[in-house]
Amino acid sequence: MNPATHFLASWFAADYSGFGRRDRILITLSGVLPDLDGLGAVPDTMNRLLGNPQTYYYSAFHHTLLHGLPAALLLPLLTVWAAKKRLRTWSMGVVAVHIHMLLDLVGSRGPRPADVWPVSYLAPFSERMTLSLSWQWQLNAWPNILFTVVLLLMVFRSAITKGYTPIEMLGQREETVFIQDVRHRWEQIRKILPNQAL
């Protein structure tokens, strides 16, 4: 799925588990770090643009290097040194990586029906537990888009009702400006709509 979807899903998983700001941020990072194995796309693209021999780092490493159980156990360790509740934050980080893998397993197919993208659960050490779904939907399919839109609506709801959002990852000042703007616009909408519509 899209990295933005992984980001939002990880943040909401941490939020609904009752973590404070710092630990929510660390868990969210754990949930998006698996996509670092997709950075092979950068040299692949540069080599193609510069006319160098074509490389295939992206297809060789994405969904294999950091999309398995070993990564799910290790990636959260990169963040917990700054956590307030280290064991709980690490545990939820493991869950966030598994959520990432599940979302990729369900919704990361390429444009053709044969382009199913498996997740090797024991990668990079073994391919014995490679998981795939024959009905995996395309990366740009409507379920992925709908899921992302629902997560975005939840961001606005969180801004209005809770007073904090995933924008906290950018900084408190940025989040405060965002929340004030969302709440101001919500009040304008409420004045226009009849009470029964709310």
Highlighted features:
198 residues, mainly alpha, two-stranded antiparallel sheet, 8 helices, 2 strands, 56% helix
Task: Walk me through the structure.
The protein has 198 residues and is an all-alpha fold. The protein has a domain at 3-139. The chain contains eight helices and two strands, in the order ααααααββαα. It has helices at 3-16, 21-32, 41-50, 57-61, 69-74, 86-107, 142-161, 172-192, and strands at residues 119-120, 130-131. The protein has a two-stranded antiparallel ribbon with strand order 1-2. Helix 2 (21-32) runs parallel beside helix 6. The chain is globular. The protein starts with a helix and ends in a 6-residue tail after the last helix. The mean pLDDT is 93.
Task: Provide a brief overview of the structure.
By secondary structure, this protein is an all-alpha fold. It is built from eight helices and two strands, in the order ααααααββαα. It has a domain at 3-139.
Which word captures the global form?
Answer: globular
Arrangement of strands in the largest sheet: 1-2
- Main sheet? 2 strands, antiparallel
Number of strands: 2
Tell me the structural class. Answer: mainly alpha
Q: First CA to last CA: what distance?
A: 33 Å
Helices and strands in order:
Elements: H1 3-16, H2 21-32, H3 41-50, H4 57-61, H5 69-74, H6 86-107, E1 119-120, E2 130-131, H7 142-161, H8 172-192
Antiparallel strand pairs: 1-2
Helix pairs in contact: 1-2, 1-6, 1-7, 2-6
